[in-house]
Amino acid sequence: MTATTQTAPGLTTAESPNATPRRSLTAADRCDRCGAQAFIAAEFTASELLFCAHHGREHRDKIESAITVDETSKLAPTNRQQGPVHA
Ligand SMILES: [Zn+2]
Q1: Does residue 2 lie within any of the structural domains?
Q2: Three-class SS string for 10-77?
Q3: The whole model's pTM is what?
Q4: What is the whole-number distance in angstroms between the Cα of residue 32 and the centre of ligand 1?
Q5: Which of 10-14, 26-30, 74-78 has the lowest average pLDDT?
Q6: 57 C-alpha vs ligand 1 centroid, how far in Å?
Q7: How many angstroms is it from 58 CA to the middle of ligand 1?
Q8: Is residue 60 included in any domain, yes or no?
Q9: Most buried among 21, 46, 66, 74, using CB within 10 Å?
Q10: Residue 65, domain extent
């Protein structure tokens, strides 16, 4: 039998000490626009902005490259295709 004890030399499982630990957003994190619960965090020159799912989507094209946390996937996909929108 062959023991498969492989250690990939270049592969570090430990997180880089220089990397900012990826925090998770809590219910205490609020959207800077409307005060709703934040699901997206974006960092702009040392200041962080939080966005709820709605405003995160609204400003997505502007903040996309700065997004550090995106937890919108935690939201249940209930708000898509909810039928025709009343004008
Ligand atoms: Zn908002």
Answers
A1: no
A2: CCCCCCCCCCCCCCCCCCCCECCCCCCECCEEEEECCEEEEECHHHHHHCHHHHHHHEEEECHHHCCC
A3: 0.61
A4: 7
A5: 10-14
A6: 9
A7: 9
A8: yes
A9: 66
A10: 40-74
Residue 21: closest CA among 7, 51, 41: 41
Q: Which tens digit of pLDDT belongs to each residue from 35-69?
A: 999 999 999 988 999 999 999 999 999 999 999 99
65 C-alpha to ligand 1 centroid (Å): 19
Strands 47-51 and 67-70: unpaired
Domain-located, residue 46: yes
- Ligand 1 centroid, distance to 18 Cα (angstroms): 31
* Tally of CA atoms within 13 A in the half-sphere of 21 that contains its CB: 5
Centroid of ligand 1 to alpha carbon of 67 (angstroms) = 15
How many structural domains compose the chain?
A: 1
